[in-house]
Design a protein that fits this description.
By secondary structure, the protein is α+β, with helices and mostly antiparallel strands. It is about 30% helix and about 30% strand.
Length: about 170
């Protein structure tokens, strides 16, 4: 199985915010944005794995700016790290308001997906080779996030998590 680069999974989805998708203050519902991000991330994960994928977790979501009615929303997703059968997807969300000002970064998120076969059993996926500075940073951070998650779940001891040794001040 040939390794891939993050750009191979890049997925960009653009849509507008309609009245039925907004709350009482005329901004996009958070749940609506989460659904859009999940769909975009799943396409990126499918592109990387060339398999059916399922959402394993929503690891992080930052709602930094409300997105007003009528805005144009662009969601960009790329695989940031591939493990054996799972992959982390990093998403950036931008919007342009009704005045068509410069795009504003509204949100970012990190989702985890697992590639599965027709019996829903996990399948191996290609390795990921980051290329840009940002991709390399996100790649390294993904391993630390995974190790921390495993430590917190009791599936990994802190001293086994090489990337976390400095965080926990372990010699």
């Amino acid at each position: 199985m040939a390794a891939k680069h993050p750009i191979d999974s890049k997925t960009v989805v653009t849509s507008s915010v309609l009245p039925s998708e907004t709350n009482a203050i005329h901004t996009l519902f958070g749940g609506e944005l989460l659904a859009r991000m999940d769909r975009t991330a799943s396409i990126a994960a499918q592109r990387h794995s060339e398999s059916v994928v399922v959402t394993a977790s929503v690891n992080h979501v930052a709602f930094n700016h409300a997105i007003p009615l009528g805005s144009i929303v662009t969601i960009e997703a790329k695989v940031s790290r591939a493990f054996k059968t799972s992959m982390e997807i990093y998403l950036d969300v931008w919007f342009t308001d009704n005045n068509f000002n410069k795009p504003i970064k509204a949100n970012e998120a990190i989702f985890t997906f697992v590639a599965v076969d027709e019996t829903r059993k996990p399948v191996e996926i290609p390795r990921l080779i980051p290329q840009t500075k940002q991709e390399k940073t996100r790649y390294a951070s993904a391993l630390r996030r995974r190790q921390l998650s495993l430590v917190l779940a009791g599936k990994l001891k802190p001293e086994q998590a090489t990337e976390l040794k400095a965080l926990f001040d372990i010699k």
